[in-house]
Structures are given as structure tokens and as C-alpha cells.
Amino acid sequence: MSAVDRFEPDPNVATEVPRAANPRPNRLESPILPADLSDEDVVGRWLAAKATGRGRLAPTTLAQYRTEAERLFWYARQVNTPISGWGLDEFSAYIGFLQAPAPWAIRKPGVRRGSPDWRPFLRPLSDRSAGQTQKIVTSLFDWLRDVGYLQLNPSTGLPKVGRREPEKQARFLSPDDTALLRETIAARPGAESGREARLTNARDLFAVDLFERTGLRTTEVVQCRMGHVRIEPVPQALRREFPDAPPFQWLLRVERGKGGKARWVPCDEISLSLQAYRIAFGLPPVPLPDEDLPLLLSVRRSRWGELKGIRSRTAIWKLVTGLCSEALAYARAHGRRVDADRFERASTHWLRHTYAKGLAQAVRDGLDASAALENMGHSDLRTFRRYVDDEPLRRALATQQARTRVTR
């Protein structure tokens, strides 16, 4: 079954969108694709290409691409114009339809896929979501043009929906916030509460350190193994360049980051935490190069008594959000004032942003921006700049201080 086999015609929907007069003026016979393929067959090949190779999409991203293909073909059936016959007007009409779909295109809550009443929309898309759809569908049409299936990309030259300067990143936990997370874990009952409680405390302390001090994405943590940690001796040449450097540097290998990109992440800051965590689980303090245990371990063993890891993004997300909820309850119980909204909304990615903020400060202090980009796994400096000067209150105080000096 192809990636788009589930796209079936929907004869039950009466469309209000005008039909195109010319069916396929943009269609070509591709020299590198089999003959007589339907549009659905060709897009199925595009999705299959996105799912293979070192640069393959993550499962969640691939699911979004499939959703966009599903919406695209559903709409094409309603307007009775195959996507290989689209021009600028058809593409523009589609993007506009996403933001203001006709009433017949909105499905009622609870209607399941496969029902005659199913529709691909629950509500109009926001500007941001419509812009993301435009980006994905434009990349599809780029591919169709590149493989010779279309003569031109019908989205060429159209303005990007929802394109605006992104706001500075405000979703992060401050050092005081992460200190509260650690204090909350330390305040739990210790070894006297049993083996599982002791292991949970050690694992959770390490999880906070891992996300805050390496900036890894949740999917990257799921994929990381203990053997991906390396301790590299610092050669004499680098010791001359960095005279205060330790004799050894801890590094963590991310085999497959976003876009399939591998990178090395500095992890000296978590070396002591990692060793204490491993000792608590009965492991040698330093991982072996070929050690295949996941980086984040479950406190429960397999049915054969072996250590096992936390292998899903959802489980790790629940671990960190649970810690944040626990810290909020702990602060309230001790009469501490904290930003409840932040702790209620925080997640693993907020700790990644915390790490990025520290890197942004390091860039201001002299760290090369390319090193910061590599640590984060970013390819665009504009993405990283969202973390610079992201605290309006800090900026306001700095401005006031500077202006006071001038006016004295």
C-alpha cells in the first residue's frame, strides 16, 4: 500500500469552489518516473523518498507531510482539478481555502476517518499553520518539477502566508527554575524508600542536567546510547589555544539530529551527573564505547532482569512535565512564589531553550556563532538569534541603567 492509498474520492461533498477550465497544462512526461502514474502515485513516491536515507524525516514530521498530502488531494477532488493541472490561481485558492474553508469542509467533532461525513478540517488554519502547509506543499511541487513531472512550480513567486519576524523566544526555564527542579528532587524520600525511589531520583536529576546543559531535542535523547559518550584527550596544540582547558573533554555524539544531521555536543557539564546516575544503576561510572544502553534508563527492568531505556518521546515528555508539576506543588507547599503558568506549560523543549539562552550569552561573550549553531543543531543563524535578548525586563533594566549613566 502506498503512502497515499487512503486518499479516496469524496463524492458526498458538494463543492462551492469553481472548476478549472484547462485540466493539465503543466503536466509533463517525466523521463525518470514510470509512465502512466497518477498524481497520487507520484506523491506516494515523494513521501517514500522523505522516509528513507540518512536525511529522512522524523516520524512526527513525516506524519505532518502525509496529512498535508491528504488535505491537498481532498481539496483537488472537490475542485475537480488534479494537482498536476494547477497554476498560480489554483495554488493561491488552495492556500486561501485553508485559512477560510467553506462550511461544508469543516467536520463535526467525533467524526472518524472513513466516515462519509469526514473532512480534513476541524477549523480554519491559523496564519502560522497555513504558512507551514504552504512550505510543505511548495517543497512537494519543487520535487515534482525536479523529477520532470511538472514544467513549473505553481507556487512560484507567491508571498509566504503568515511570514513575519518571529518573536524572541520566551519559552524557557530560568536558572532559578531549574534549581527548583533539582531542589524538589533532592527533597524526595531517598534510599530509605526503596530501590525504585533511589533510582528515580538519580535518573530525574540526570534528566534535568541532560536537557538543560546539552540542549538535546527529545527525539535525539531517545536515540542516544551510553556508548555515544566519548572522553577525548585535549591535544597539546589545543592546550596552547585554550590554556585553561582540562586534559580531557567529554563529548556526546548525536547520530541523527533534525534533518538527519549528526553532530558532537559538549557534555563536560553533565559528566559528574552522568557518573553518579550510572553508579546508582549499578553501572561503571564511565560508559564503554560500544555500550548500547539508552541514555535515559527506566527504573524498572525487563522481564529478564536487564536494564532498559525510556524509548518514546511521549514517556520522556511526561517525565519532564511531571517534574515541573511536582516542583510547582513543592514551591506552593513551602510558600515560595513562582511563575505557576511557566511551570504548568514547561516541557523538555523549554529546557533546550534554556541551553540556547546560555549559548546566546556565550556568543555575546566571544563564542563563535557557528559553534553555537553546531551545538544546537541549527542550520540557520536567524533561528538561533531568537534566543538573543529574549527577556524584555532584563533589556529594560539594562537600557535604564545605560541611560542613567549618560544623563548624569
From TrEMBL:
Subcellular location as annotated: Cytoplasm
Presence of the UniProt keyword Methyltransferase in the record: no
Gene source species: Paraburkholderia aspalathi
Keyword Secreted: no
Major localisation: cytoplasm
Superkingdom classification of source: Bacteria
PANTHER family for the chain: PHAGE INTEGRASE-RELATED, TYROSINE RECOMBINASE XERC
Ranges where the Tyr recombinase domain occurs: 168-400
Keywords on record: DNA integration, DNA recombination
Annotated region (Disordered), positions in chain: 1-32
Protein name in the entry: Tyrosine recombinase XerC
Coiled coil (UniProt feature): none
